[in-house]
Design goal:
- This protein has 250 residues and is an alpha+beta fold.
- The protein folds into two domains: 64 residues, Arc Repressor Mutant, subunit A; 160 residues, Chorismate lyase, CATH 3.40.1410.10.
- The protein contains nine helices and ten strands.
- α1 crosses α3 and α2 packs across α3.
- The longest helix has 15 residues.
- It is elongated.
């Protein structure tokens, strides 16, 4: 027997339908990768027009719950998120993912020396007559799915010395394995919208919200050695912060 939206509800029909489908997805009735009912089936089930059904599907798409595959139908997106831990002592990304049973890898998109933009010059405290840094852009994949794009600016002496390793490995553990101790990191996390370039790298729609993790890393001499920002898909990564109370001085 078909089920139709309650006629007395003042809520638009497309929202009623999308909310019901949302509940069914989140409850597990439709699992990751499952196909939800077709447009025709939803029209029959809810006794509504095609445009109403399409608006309902658009609502689910905008919430990141489904994806449309041309000529095949609408499918539930993978809702699993992996946690990037921001804690003291430092836990490096690859180790963090491995503890969650996730395989992480990187694809180097760019690695080259260039003149630092003014803001980067100030952050890294570069002399006015020598503003070269090494710039790297890399794609981070989790279980072979694009999850984040990391953009890093590294002091030139470190970029030159460890270029071969930095091209193919995560930055922080590479430096520490070579005796460059990272004493602390200053960081902020905020939301931004996907640019055209990032949408292509991460396979997400233009304008979709991303989390951006901006950081500055210091040695034990309080010297900044690199800075950067990681743009991550909100449906793939989230951040966990550990807060501890400092011991009172005695």
């Amino acid at each position: 027997m078909s089920r139709s939206p309650e006629p007395q509800s003042s809520t638009p029909l497309h929202l009623v339908i999308s909310e019901r489908l949302r509940e069914e997805i989140l409850s597990g009735k439709y699992a990751s990768g499952d196909q939800i009912p077709s447009e025709h089936q939803l029209m029959e089930q809810y006794q509504v027009s095609r445009i109403t059904v399409r608006r309902a599907i658009a609502n689910l798409t905008n919430q990141g719950l489904v994806i449309t595959r041309r000529g095949k139908g609408v499918f539930v997106k993978d809702q699993r998120k992996y946690i990037c831990t921001l804690s003291n002592p430092l836990i490096f990304f690859k180790e963090d993912m491995a503890r969650q049973g996730v395989t992480s890898s990187i694809q180097s998109l760019a690695f080259e020396p260039l003149a630092a933009p003014d803001k980067i010059q100030q952050i890294l405290q570069l002399p006015e007559n020598d503003t070269e840094v090494y710039f790297q852009r890399k794609l981070i994949l989790l279980n072979n799915v694009p999850a984040a794009v990391d953009i890093t600016y590294v002091l030139p002496e470190l970029g030159r010395q460890f270029a071969d390793e930095l091209r193919f490995h995560m930055t922080f553990p590479t430096l520490e394995q070579n005796g460059i101790v990272i004493e602390h990191i200053e960081a902020t996390v905020e939301s931004v919208h996907t640019s055209h370039e990032l949408s292509q790298y991460l396979a997400v729609p233009l304008g979709e919200p991303l989390l951006v993790y901006r950081y500055i890393a210091y040695t034990n001499q309080e010297t900044p050695i690199l800075c950067g920002e990681t743009f991550s898909r909100g449906d793939r990564l989230c951040y966990s912060v550990v807060l501890t109370r400092q011991a009172s001085a005695r």
